[in-house]
Amino acid sequence: MELTRGILAAGRSAGGPADRLALRDLAESYAAAVDARDEELFVSLFTEDGVLQVSYAHLAEPMPPVVGAAALVAIPRALGAKFPETFHFVGNHRCQIDGDRAAGEAYCEAHHLHADEAGVPTDLRMVIRYGDAYARGADGLWRFARRTVNVLWQEIAPVSASLLHRP
């Protein structure tokens, strides 16, 4: 299912405002789960056989997909081991709903605080476009059937003050 141009909520696709809000909440809950390193919440956002795939614009091939709850649970922990603090800001969420399936897209500016080789706090900032396939479960909740994390560009910047060295 492809997103179309224009206002999708004006009766041109199935799904009312409640579904759209639930899908937006799903996208925002993903960011919250990652930032809080909440493994339980993170896994609950995906279908049992959900897929997460990351691609970087500067690489020819995407990273291998992460499939299923048993593999997905490691994502927040791995991110936390590499970056002591993260901050994901999600916006511009669009979706098209077809019954119990939907497709969506959201933008994200993600900050990843870490120390460089000299111990200086730095921010790895990524501009991300998420491509999503959603499925509504028998419980009525929307989940990611597939989430593709497309890192469009990234930059590293010094951080003047950070939480890396908390007292």
Report on the structure:
The chain is α+β, with helices and mostly antiparallel strands. It has one domain: Roll (Nuclear Transport Factor 2, Chain: A), CATH 3.10.450.50. It is 23% helix and 45% strand. The protein is built from four helices and six strands, in the order ααββααββββ. A six-stranded mixed sheet has the order 2-1-6-5-4-3. A hairpin with a 5-residue loop joins β4 and β5. The chain starts with 16 loop residues before the first helix and ends in a 9-residue tail after the last strand. The N terminus is likely disordered.
Could you write a compact summary of the structure shown?
Pfam families: SnoaL_4. The chain has helices at residues 17-36, 39-44, 69-72, 74-82; strands at residues 46-56, 66-67, 85-98, 101-115, 121-136, 142-158. With 167 residues, the protein is α+β, with helices and mostly antiparallel strands.
Features:
167 residues, alpha+beta, Nuclear Transport Factor 2, Chain: A, six-stranded mixed β-sheet, 4 helices, globular, disordered N terminus, SnoaL-like domain-containing protein
Shape descriptor reads globular
Averaged pLDDT: 89
Strands side by side in the biggest sheet: 2-1-6-5-4-3
Structural class: alpha+beta
CATH-defined architecture: Roll
Briefly note the CATH topology name. Answer: Nuclear Transport Factor 2, Chain: A
Weakly predicted, low-confidence segments:
1-13
Organism: Pseudofrankia inefficax (strain DSM 45817 / CECT 9037 / DDB 130130 / EuI1c) (Frankia inefficax)
Domain SnoaL-like: 18-148
Protein name: SnoaL-like domain-containing protein
InterPro entries: NTF2-like_dom_sf, SnoaL-like
